[in-house]
UniProtKB/TrEMBL annotation:
Origin: domain of life: Bacteria
Pfam families, alphabetized: adh_short
Protein name: 3-hydroxy-2-methylbutyryl-CoA dehydrogenase
Gene3D superfamilies per record: NAD(P)-binding Rossmann-like Domain
Species annotation: Pseudorhizobium endolithicum
Record key words, sorted: Oxidoreductase
Similarity field: Belongs to the short-chain dehydrogenases/reductases (SDR) family.
Record flagged with keyword Oxidoreductase: yes
Keyword Phosphoprotein set for record: no
Amino acid sequence: MKIEGSSAIVTGGGSGLGEATARLLARLGAVVHVFDRNGEAAEKISSAIGGVAVTGDVASEADANKAVEIAAKAGDGLRILVNCAGVAAAGRILGPDGPLPLSEFERVVRVNLIGTFNMMRLAAERMAETAERDDKARGVIVNTASVAAFEGQVGQAAYSASKGGILSMALPAARELARFGIRVNTVAPGIFLTPLLLGLPQETQESLGASIPYPPRLGDPAEFADAVRFLIENQYVNGEVIRLDGAIRMQPK
């Protein structure tokens, strides 16, 4: 899929992995719609890259529809969706204060999994309406899972379930949307230097980085963005899940 001139939505584009992706796609010539719950962050990034800010919740049908409708009117129609929006949460199924509140499990699954599906289904509808390009392509969707989908740690039941669901959607979604010329791929990142980790002491950051086989450091969001670029541009990659983790395999704790 050619990025230049394409209309793109990056959810969670106001910070972290989403911000890095929005910046790269803009540099490559896409009309980037930064969709984030944090309106101030969305405005800041969109202003910096010459994009469009859209404030809203990915799990809200109305908010997601708004973002998709705006993006569908740019360029030659909505062609690219990158789902980076998500929440991280830690909580044991049975902790010292009793069972994990069901509302907490629902919150994580709603944002991470339902939000991803909500955006994918609505964006796919608009992509299917666009004109075919020379290679019969109409659009591409890249979702964000996590290595926790493979090796969830103690306290990550909700998070792992949500990311595992995203991982499992890749192939059936790719198969179903193939007839429209829409590809679906997934990136499963390891430990990346996002705003959450930037708030940790330098010693802790270095310790986390040292646990990664090679390179022994935290991932750079720009490396995530570059993986997304590859998945968008390489037309033969479809229904795939790429681990981006420096060969780390998470321990139980």
